[in-house]
Design goal:
Elements (H helix, E strand, L loop, with lengths): L3 E5 L6 H12 L2 E4 L1 H13 L7 H9 L3 E4 L2 E4 L2 E2 L7 H6 L1 H4 L2 H14 L5 E5 L2 H5 L5 E6 L2 H14 L7 H17 L12 E4 L5 H20 L1
Parallel strand pairs: 1-6, 1-7, 2-6, 7-8
Antiparallel strand pairs: 3-4, 4-5
Keywords: ATP-binding, Cytoplasm, Kinase, Nucleotide-binding, Transferase
Family: Belongs to the cytidylate kinase family. Type 1 subfamily.
Subcellular location: Cytoplasm
Length: 223
């Protein structure tokens, strides 16, 4: 049998990389919901949609078709996987993420992606809003120091500058506050989510812990 697995957590908690590896090992489809917002932002950019024109955005979201095939992202049948890291996309995405009608449309889209089960979905409101009935829920977290160091290492590998550890801590703290205090779909720990603090775990140990809990869940469901 296949179930849906929902994973939430703050920025830098490792939820995306862990979710992707978990999905790979159990043969599930991995979906990073953040990419739905990036994909729509990209769609608006290439179609010259004015981010300040709400009517234009409402029309655009109705014509927006998003699909995930393996590791590839398709928008209206175009493979846009390599386009979602564009600087203009990353700079523009905040113009749409706070809009209630966009979030509502995205939640509907994200739920449709999980309707047949067999999905590992990550984000910041998956356990609480998008997939509240998911059979298995995780909340991945880590200390601010560990999360900032992870970002610092990522930036170093990708040659991203400036790359200041204290500044990264400050940015992550502000991001946490914004995520937890936003009016729609705030970052919360649901009562039925399993909290996994991976501050002192290696990546392999994190995956091992998730797999153990997944296997226990499947065993209990089959009994």
């Amino acid at each position: 049998m296949k179930i849906n697995i929902a994973i939430d957590g703050p920025a830098g908690s490792g939820k995306s990389s862990a979710g992707a590896e978990l999905a790979k090992q159990i043969g599930y489809q991995f979906i990073d919901t953040g990419l739905t917002y990036r994909a729509f932002t990209y769609y608006c950019v290439v179609n010259n949609v004015d981010f300040n024109d709400y009517q234009a955005l409402q029309a655009a979201i109705k014509n927006f078709n998003f699909q995930v095939v393996g590791d590839d992202i398709f928008v209206n049948n175009e493979n846009v996987t390599d386009q979602l890291q564009q600087e203009i996309v990353l700079k523009s995405i905040n113009k749409i993420t706070g809009l209630a009608f966009i979030r509502e449309a995205m939640v509907e889209l994200q739920r449709s992606l999980a309707k047949d089960h067999g999905v590992v979905m990550v984000g910041r409101d998956i356990t609480s809003v998008v997939l509240p009935t998911a059979e298995l829920k995780f909340f991945l977290t880590a200390s601010i120091e560990v999360r900032a160091l992870r970002r610092w290492n990522q930036n170093k590998v990708n040659n991203i500058v400036p790359n200041d550890l204290e500044l990264l801590k400050e940015q992550l703290t502000k991001r946490d506050q914004a995520d937890m205090q936003r009016a729609t779909g705030p970052l919360v720990v649901t009562s039925d989510a399993i909290v996994l603090n991976n501050s002192n775990l290696t990546f392999a140990e994190t995956i091992q812990a998730l797999l153990k809990l997944y296997n226990e869940k499947i065993k209990s469901e089959e009994q």
